[in-house]
Amino acid sequence: MPTTDLSPIRTLSKSQSVFEQLRQAIWNGDLQPGVALREAHIAKQLNVSQVPVREALLQLESLGLVVRVPDRGTTVTKLTRTEIEQMIDVRRHLEEMAFLLAADHLTPTVIAELKTHLKNMRTYVEQHDHFAVAEEDFAFHRTVWKAAGNEVLEKTLERLCIAVYAFVSLKRHAAGDSMKAQVAEHKRLLDALMTKNKKTIKAGVAEHITPSAAIPLNVEE
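and the corresponding structure tokens:
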């Protein structure tokens, strides 16, 4: 079959266009947390087939902006304060393990990558781009998880954290929260990691990952 019959460029372009429109609608608050996203309805609204819509929803899921539940469909990510608190409690223990392991595998390359994420965070804070700050925050921690050298730990933390990052960034954006403190917090965390001292690292992680610092006031119970 000729490759032109497959029209890959057009399909990818449509998927990306649907993805960008839905992401912007979620980010702007036009699609509120908990709202159901029905493929057929979206496809009709945007005058496309359900295939690019399905692809777009998969992209949104990878960013934590939507949740896909078998036999129940897809909804914009919504978490309660209690759910986030429970996730943070588990995450704190796993992050401590990851940072301690990463300290044993710390290289100039890893340190340079972490510093780049800090620099990018600072830039996005100045631009008041909450979601970009959250992405760099997530990338900072991902770098540490990868450096830890434990794939199970890395994947567990990623699954646990991705929806929280997305949902919290949406809430911070809606509330107009300042993000300046996040850069300083991550700088302290990096400084603790670079000491390679277990006690210092544990204290740094415990200070960084707390419900009071992580959960915006506008998150419902």
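(Above: one complete record from the training split.) Confidence is low (pLDDT under 50) at residues 1-9.
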